[in-house]
Amino acid sequence: MRRHEITSQRQAYLLLLISGVFIVVLIFVGLPLLFNLSSAISSFRRPKTAVVDVSLVPSAPRFFEDLTATKSANIKVAGVADPNTIVELFQNGFSQGTTTSADDGKFVFDGDLSQGNNTFYAQATSSKGQKSEKSDTYVISYSNKSPKLDLNNVRDGDTVKESSFKITGATDMGNAVTINDRLAMTGLDGVFSLSLSLSNGENKLKIVATDAAGNQTTKEITIKYSP
Questions:
Q1: Tell me: the pLDDT tens digits for 96-107?
Q2: Are the CB atoms for 128 and 112 separated by under 8 Å?
Q3: CA dihedral in degrees (86, 91, 97, 98; nearest 10)?
Q4: Rounded to whole angstroms, how far apart are CA atoms 129 and 41?
Q5: Are the C-beta atoms of 86 and 125 separated by less than 8 Å?
Q6: What separation in angstroms does the CA of 70 have from each of 32, 73, 118, 136, 177?
Q7: CB-based contact 124:132 (threshold 8 Å)
Q8: What's this model's pTM, rounded to 2 decimal places?
Q9: What is the DSSP string of the chain?
């Protein structure tokens, strides 16, 4: 009887020991293994996303904004990008082709302008096919039309009785006006004026209106001062 009790106790101790070892193995081996297996299954089911190496994405190109208005339809659009990247130029939303920036990053496009404002932006592409952000826009205004030039209070051949005579007229908004190479005061509405000191007899006047693109309209008149 005593021997039977001792045997039972030993079996109980052994069972407890085996259970303890099993629990330890489960905690340190089984659970991590189960977690890794679950993660692997989850990763397999989850759609893979491409990893973009930000360091390889080229910088957005920058323009040399040397020109804002012109009377020439043919221009060169230049700027700088990362060296040896493909630069694509867009004009009014349409691609104008590509070029490769030089070792110093500079690029140049030959362009044809449309009447009015022409809006440009550029985008660079690396050798790995990664595109930059769009550049800031660059606007060039093209016009080959002669600006408006009207005289309000004097005509060719008029005779005036004041030696200090103010000439007034109108041009397009934003234009500059000179009278005998003196700059007239021009308002936001294009109305201009300039006071001149006249000599006795005939006075020749040359009035020139110039717009931002460099187009000019010239009028030459002669007025007579007779007190």
A1: 999 999 999 999
A2: no
A3: -10
A4: 32
A5: yes
A6: 72, 8, 11, 20, 18
A7: yes
A8: 0.69
A9: -HHHHHHHHHHHHHHHHHHHHHHHHIIIIIHHHHHHHHHHHHHHHSPP-PPP-GGGSPPPPEE----SEES-SEEEEEEE-STT-EEEEEETTEEEEEEE--TTSEEEEEEEPPSEEEEEEEEEE-TTS-B-PPPPPEEEEE--SPPPEEESS--TT-EES-SEEEEEEEE-TT-EEEETTEEPEE-TTSEEEEEEEPPSEEEEEEEEEE-TTS-EEEEEEEEEE--
Residues in the chain: 227
φ, ψ for residue 28, nearest 5 deg: -90, -20
Written as six digits, the tokens of 70 are 């012109």
Identify residue 91 by its one-letter amino acid code: Q
Structure tokens at 152: 């309000």
Beta-strand relationship, 69-70 and 138-142? parallel
State pLDDT tens for residues 52-100: 455 689 999 999 999 999 999 999 999 999 999 999 999 999 999 999 9
Residues 6+ apart with CB under 8 A from 176: 183, 186, 209, 210
- Start-to-end C-alpha separation, the chain: 155
Residue 205 and residue 182: Cα distance in Å, rounded?
11
